[in-house]
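Objective 1b. Sequence-to-structure analysis of RNA-directed DNA polymerase.
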Amino acid sequence: MLLNLQRYNLSIKFVSGKENVVADALSRAPDEKDESWDQYKKLNIYKIFEEIENIPQQRYLKITDNRLKEISEETKKDQTLQTLIQYIQRGWPDEANKVPDSIKIYFGYRNELSVENDLIFRGDRILIPQIIRRKLIDCCHISHNGVEATLKLARANIFWPGMNSQIKDVIKNCTVCNKFSDSQPNPPMMSHDIPTHPFQMISMDVFFAEYRGAKKNFLVTVDHYSDFFEVNILKDMSPQSVISVCKENFARHGRPQRIITDNGTNFVNKQMLSFAKQWDFEHVTSAPHHQQSNGKAEAAVKIAKRLLKKAQESDTDFWYALLNWRNIPNKIGSSPAARLFSRSTKCSVPCSDINLLPKIVENVPTSIEKHRKKAKEQYDKKTRRLPDLEIGSPVFVQLTPETSKQWTPGKVSERLNSRSYVVDVHGRNFRRSLVHLKPRTASPTCTSSQEDNVHPCEYSSPAQLLDEPSQNQPHDRPRRNTTLPSRLKDYVLN
């Protein structure tokens, strides 16, 4: 319209409505009210309400006749529901204080309840008597689905106050669901103490690999300060062979203050205990089936196996390849040989004599700390802190997590440290890491819950009685922190 008016020289002037005597279709009052039309609308509304009241809800229920008959019979036997039917049919008082204590919990639902053929409905959902509620929960959970799937099925057909919490408790303590539930997430990284000098703290592990056409047993000894590791061939896997090799390494590098191993029989035995006492070092063992606790040795084993495979494939000398590896600077900025011996060792790469002169590597503990801090930041992004366990508390435990992820019920009998526990399973003790343990609660019962005795004022609003979970309920998963946009910092928002 503006384009069409551009050829005219017009001036726009505002005129108030009372002075604008020219009538237009958009600003004039409509015709007078037709009372007959209002009466006609009211009559239609009454008819709609009458049709709604006469809808046979029982016909549209997804429940078998036998189940419906059982619910009807139990409803007649339940005195609380019979009192509730009387209030639904005769009307509710305005205040909850005037309602009997047995049905105060239904006061917030009073506008949604109806009665048909001795059955109570909340909307299109049937109210289940207390005595068969557990049976109905088992029917909803017969396929052993998760909490949300079971709740959706129950909410579509049945109802009673506190149904959500009871269903959650049943699923939480379901033996089948717990037996085949997911494994625990990894807890945040917990590093060992940072050593201040070479060979102060070492880790050891044994492995089996092919060497020169034959299967051999190897012992790996890795230094936490320098990452330098020794690889020794064992005659056999006996404790005597392991101790004999340890003495050779200790005579070469010095006696360590702490040795970290797994719980293999070649490390946990009387001979090793006597050896630790005689040579005066601390022997620390990791929890069984948790290789991450001895991660330094596991990493060294991985490198040694890779060098053995590649040396055999390329027909080169394994020990020559190991010599080269020890002179490669790693993420800390210096090579394992330089940190252990304070000099580089001569390898296959030509170098001047100056590079072979002794030179102390400065600030090694600080570099290790920085590297561990960065690694922890990246690792902890996919972890979650696991709750501590008390002695005597019931738990589920994974006995063989490498081969089976199934959970077995047990009880905590001893706490060794913050990440390691001893669990009693059918009279036998098992040491397991916290990641292989899960808290277990007692089996729930569907008796009268505490919700039946809540103060009446809490039921003054139906919004407080919704079946949806409370917003203050703790979440199982971590939540992202939310902040207001910077452009709204000067405003007060509700």
